[in-house]
Amino acid sequence: MRRLLGLALLCLAVAACGGSGGGRLSRTEYARQADAICARYSQAIDALGRPKSLAELAKFTDDAVPIAQRAVDDARKLRPPEDEQTLAARWNAENQKVVDALAKLGAAARRNDESAAKAALAAGDTANTNANDLGRQLGMDACTKA
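and the corresponding structure tokens:
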């Protein structure tokens, strides 16, 4: 059960922030804005509480996935420095994989399918580790905590 909760907490790493405007952000501003949103979305997910059973895990993911997806969507709106565009795109892609794994975890929990839950956990763990590494390379702090 502890491992199942691990993926649920992975979505805390999924982050970004909304941003608009035509200009690109500096490296520092990109990281600062992403970290601010990581903190905001992490707070929203923390407010959901911690599931203690598969049934609670399914409900948790039903609530957490849309929050995490909004974070990824907001991250894609940011305009990183041109020389970090590829790295930022990879970061966004890994965060999307975390959200997808979280959704699969919820589906597995609803079916009481331990094998599928373990597969979702493995995929989510890998994507989360990758996202954290990329976030550090992009100068982020709050987005690399989970």
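(Above: one complete record from the training split.) Confidence is low (pLDDT under 50) at residues 1-7, 10-21.
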